[in-house]
Amino acid sequence: MNPVPPSERPGYRLRPARHTGPRARGIRGLVAGSVAIALACASIAPVHGGEPPAEARKGARPALTVETVVAERASLRERITLSGNVAPWQEAVIGAEIAGLRLAEIHAEVGDQVAAGALLARFATDTVEAELALARASLAEAEAALAEARVNAERARQVQASGALSAQQVGQLLTAEMTAQARVEAARAQVRAQEVRLRHAQVIAPDAGVISARNATLGAVAQPGAELFRMIRRARLEWRAEVPSASLHRLRAGQVVQVQAPSGAVIEGRIRRIAPTVDAASRNAIAHVDLPASAAPALRAGMFVRGELDLGTVGALTLPQSAVLLREGLSYAFRVEADGRVAQVRIETGRRDAGRVEVVSGLAEGVVVVRSGVAFLSDGDRVRLAPATR
């Protein structure tokens, strides 16, 4: 007969064993800590299906307090930006007009201001003076021969009717008079030629101006036509501005141009004339702008400078320059929406004047946009608005 297990006996109750060792105490502590963490997380976690926190119910806070401005029409000054080279108004090339003479004196250097008729250089004149003296002696001899021929011819005329001289003799005497007269004229021409050579031995300034180049060398024997000096006539400069063909119809003689010197000085010039042709390669024409005499210290021939032509005022839709954001080569403005948010709007800009920018497209007149601080905004940001200003 098999014995009955205690667990099947009537009235038997199973009791858990009690563990009192260190391992049991560690397990009980771990379980208690896990329960405490679970209760703490439950106390702060939102209840599924309940209301959101108060901050979420209020919505996103404004990112920035900004001033606003209204896009409005204003008068802008219209200008054309031009560029070109500074050049002499007119240049005079002063060369040698005599051959075979040595350059003995030089009286002018680059940068010298000279008056009309001023002596610039002188050639050695010993040879010319000797030839001039010879020519004058020949002239005197010819004049003496002419005087004798005239006396003989006069006698022949007196006795021609009486028949004392034959017709052949009378003709010879009259011909000798004319020949002597011709020799005198030839001798006088030789004298004048030598006098001209003597004058050409002095290099004279043909007009007032400033010496811009000197090629004369002391002791050199110059050839006719060789350049000795180059001069800017009357020290006048002009600006040869390159004008796009599309803008030529807006230019007129007499218009004022503001030329920007490399030193920063602004010099006022006036258009003297506009070239009648357009360069086939660049599609630009040249506008000749007269510069005042006072421009010489700041501008020099050969400089490349820029300038602006003022075409007057014209009405346009504008914004303050601070309201326009340039980002990745494009222009944007931030339109203020009714819900207090801003919308980034791409715009096209044009002229700029006195801190205002022309809006060619992208905005309508009367639209409210952010006036400043646009670099700190993004599309859709909520802002706090200050009163709109103009």
Structure description:
The chain is an alpha+beta fold. It folds into four domains: 64-78 and 314-389, conserved putative lor/sdh protein from methanococcus maripaludis s2 fold; 81-88 and 234-312, Efflux pump adaptor protein, beta barrel domain (Elongation Factor Tu (Ef-tu), domain 3, Beta Barrel); 90-122 and 206-233, Beta Barrel (OB fold (Dihydrolipoamide Acetyltransferase, E2P)), CATH 2.40.50; 125-200, Helix hairpin bin (Helix Hairpins). 25% of the residues lie in helices and 36% in strands. The protein has four helices and 20 strands. A six-stranded antiparallel β-barrel has the order 2-10-13-12-11-14. A hairpin with a 5-residue loop joins strand 16 (330-336) and strand 17. The longest helix has 34 residues, at 126-159. It is rod-shaped. The N and C termini lie far apart (113 Å).
